[in-house]
């Protein structure tokens, strides 16, 4: 897919839109291709720079969309062509993409969350996408490579042959699982989507969308789960600011745009 890509805060992001994500699933299914579709927010940014396995998976990604307004703002400061349309959080785009899957007869597989949650999420999504073909499996299994439970999950995915495999085990567990099993996953598109099932099933309150539009979605999530998320939202953003300062210095400093070489 021909969209602009940018080097931002030491990572790569692609200027994808919601329509692009729907087209990705359709085209990968029609051509029987496999695409690894990941996303970046401030948390993944931190993990990318601190977790070698996490970084290895992202370096194999075919597409990396932006999940969060802070990265859009950082891109704007650096003069990149990122807009609000490129901020793609699954709470917003996934219902529309799954509707496309239902209309096209594409198979979807949800993997992750607590037992019972994936089924609840699938039922909720079917309300807006009648006829959606989706199978599920919770994320509370022994995911160690070669374990009987992991082998059973891989067989189920292989037999179902989903056009879209959506993994929601939380970062970085979901990325490690995808990396360890990537060469065996029989799916046209593979996604890392965090708590998307928890939100859809109502297991975790969905942040108000007006807060998301203002870039304050993190505040609602922090208020809902402070014990789990305090480190992510209080300690990791300063790291991103250091990276932004470095990028700004490179782009606009004496040797950057307008400076001498």
From TrEMBL:
Signal peptide: none
Keyword Glycosyltransferase: yes
InterPro entries listed in its UniProt record: WecG_TagA_CpsF (IPR004629)
UniProt entry keywords in alphabetical sequence: Glycosyltransferase, Transferase
Pfam families: Glyco_tran_WecG (PF03808)
TM regions (residue ranges): none
UniProt keyword Transferase present: yes
Gene Ontology molecular functions: hexosyltransferase activity
Protein name from the UniProt record: WecB/TagA/CpsF family glycosyltransferase
Gene source species: Rubrobacter marinus
């Amino acid at each position: 897919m021909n969209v602009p890509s940018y080097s931002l805060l030491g990572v790569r992001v692609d200027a994808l839109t919601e329509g692009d994500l729907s087209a990705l699933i359709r085209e990968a299914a029609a051509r029987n291709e496999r695409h690894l579709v990941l996303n970046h927010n401030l948390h993944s940014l931190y993990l990318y720079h601190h977790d070698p396995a996490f970084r290895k998976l992202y370096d194999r990604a075919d597409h990396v969309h932006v999940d969060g307004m802070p990265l859009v703002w950082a891109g704007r400061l650096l003069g990149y062509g990122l807009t609000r349309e490129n901020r793609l959080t699954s709470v917003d785009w996934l219902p529309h993409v799954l509707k496309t899957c239902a209309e096209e007869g594409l198979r979807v597989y949800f993997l992750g969350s607590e037992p019972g949650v994936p089924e609840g999420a699938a039922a909720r999504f079917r309300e807006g996408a009648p006829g959606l073909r989706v199978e599920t499996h919770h994320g509370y299994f022994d995911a160690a490579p070669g374990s009987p439970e992991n082998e059973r999950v891989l067989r189920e995915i292989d037999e179902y042959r989903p056009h879209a495999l959506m993994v929601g085990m939380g970062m970085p567990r979901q990325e490690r699982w995808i990396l360890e099993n990537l060469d065996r996953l029989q799916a046209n598109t593979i996604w890392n989507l965090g708590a998307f099932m928890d939100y859809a099933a109502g297991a975790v309150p969905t942040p108000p969308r007006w807060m998301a539009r203002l870039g304050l979605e993190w505040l609602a999530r922090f208020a809902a789960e402070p014990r789990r998320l305090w480190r992510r939202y209080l300690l990791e953003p300063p790291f991103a600011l250091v990276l932004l300062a470095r990028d700004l210095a490179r782009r606009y400093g004496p040797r950057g745009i307008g400076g001498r070489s």
